[in-house]
Design goal:
108 residues, rod-shaped
Length: 108
């Protein structure tokens, strides 16, 4: 058998510093990237919410106007106006509530 040299069977020890440093850098970069993404998404959500304010206000205005019309039609129908009765019937078919109690509660 050949004899082994003293340097050939000794193991070389490596430091764990470099791999741990690379792992720490990767984690920091990942967390930073995720934080940036969350900040951008949050800003986009704020923008979307701000853009919805005006249409919501307009829809409330239209709903109030429709409610006023329905109340007027209901009053005319109660007084016997045949056109108002047919309009009220059609509104009921479409699913709009035209009962006096519903209109009074909605107008307050």
């Amino acid at each position: 058998m050949p004899s082994r040299e003293h340097g050939s069977d000794s193991r070389r020890e490596y430091s764990a510093f470099v791999p741990l440093l690379l792992l720490a850098i990767a984690i920091v970069l990942f967390v930073g990237f995720q934080a940036g993404q969350l900040i951008r998404e949050r800003q986009q959500l704020v923008t979307v919410k701000e853009n919805q304010v005006q249409p919501i206000l307009e829809s409330r205005k239209v709903r109030e106007q429709l409610n006023t019309i329905v109340i007027g039609v209901n009053r005319l129908a109660e007084s016997g106006n045949p056109n108002a009765i047919s309009v009220r019937t059609r509104l009921n078919e479409l699913g709009l509530k035209t009962s006096p109690a519903a209109n009074d509660a909605a107008s307050q």
